[in-house]
Every structure is written in C-alpha cells, then in structure tokens.
C-alpha cells in the first residue's frame, strides 16, 4: 500500500510497435471470424425461414427464392472482408518493410562512419588502388 512504485515498462519502442501491430491484427482476424459465424447462422436462419416456415414463399424475384439473393450479397461482403484482412491490410505491409529498411540503412551508414574514423590517415589512399586492381 505505502511502498508501491509504478513499474516502468522494459519494452523498447520497436517491440511496443510490433505488439501494437499484432494486437491490431488479432482484432482484425477476430472480427472476420465473427463475421463468418454470423454469416453461417444468418444464412441457415434465412433458409429455414423460407423453406421450413414458408415465409415469403410466393416472392420469387427472377424465378429464384429470395434468400438466395440475400445470402449471395452477404457472401460477397464476407469475401471482401476476408480479402481486406488477408491481402490489403497485411500484418507487416509495405510501410513497415520500408521503415525497417530505413533503419537498416541508417545502421549501415553509422557502421561505415565508425570504420572510417578507425582507419589510419594513409589507408584511404590504399583502398582506391586495390579497387583499381580488381
């Protein structure tokens, strides 16, 4: 009660970013799963309502039962949702890849600068001579 301290998180910013992306991805997949389950239950309910309970049995647009159009439209929405989750909004998309590439390039430049400072003064003249021979 009296001696409690707030614990500072030991997670660096990169790991925190990955965790947030993973949580976002989990939320997307759960939403898709919920949509799929609702699609199955709703489709079965519509089929039972038409064929079992004879609701709207006389209404047949284009010579087909009305529930076929509703289930088909709902299926198109479900397919779009799945396409959106798995193709358009991938977990580690192009922006994340570009961000990681920029980090690696910055680390490489930093390493090259460190190597340049460690080289003796007469070494830079030797490097071009070696390159010319190759």
What do these coordinates show?
The chain contains four helices and no strands. It is mainly α and 134 residues long. Helix 1 runs antiparallel to helix 2 (66-88). It starts with 12 loop residues before the first helix and ends with a helix. The mean pLDDT is 77.
Give a quick set of tags describing it:
0% strand; 4 helices; 134 residues; mainly alpha; 74% helix; single chain
In short:
The chain has helices at 13-52, 66-88, 94-118, 123-133. The chain has 134 residues and is mostly helical.
Describe the protein's topology.
Elements: H1 13-52, H2 66-88, H3 94-118, H4 123-133
Helix pairs in contact: 1-2
Summed up, the helix count is 4
User: What is the helical fraction, as a range of percent?
Assistant: over 70%
Mean pLDDT: 77
Element-by-element helix/strand order: HHHH
Largest sheet: none
Spans of at least 5 consecutive residues whose pLDDT stays below 50 are none
Q: Per the principal axes of the C-alpha atoms, what is the gross shape?
A: elongated
Query: Based on DSSP secondary structure assignment, what is the total number of beta strands?
Result: 0
By secondary-structure content and strand pairing, the structural class works out as mainly alpha
**Percent of residues in β-strands:** under 5%
């Amino acid at each position: 009660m009296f001696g409690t301290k707030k614990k500072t998180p030991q997670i660096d910013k990169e790991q925190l970013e990955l965790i947030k992306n993973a949580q976002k991805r989990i939320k997307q997949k759960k939403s898709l799963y919920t949509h799929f389950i609702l699609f199955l239950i709703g489709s079965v309910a519509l089929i039972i309502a038409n064929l079992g309970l004879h609701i709207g049995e006389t209404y047949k647009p284009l010579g087909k039962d009305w529930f076929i159009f509703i289930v088909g439209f709902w299926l198109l929405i479900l397919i779009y949702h799945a396409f959106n989750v798995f193709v358009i909004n991938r977990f580690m998309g192009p922006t994340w890849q570009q961000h990681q590439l920029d980090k690696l390039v910055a680390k490489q430049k930093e390493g090259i600068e460190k190597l340049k400072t460690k080289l003796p003064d007469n070494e830079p003249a030797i490097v071009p001579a070696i390159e010319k021979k190759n």
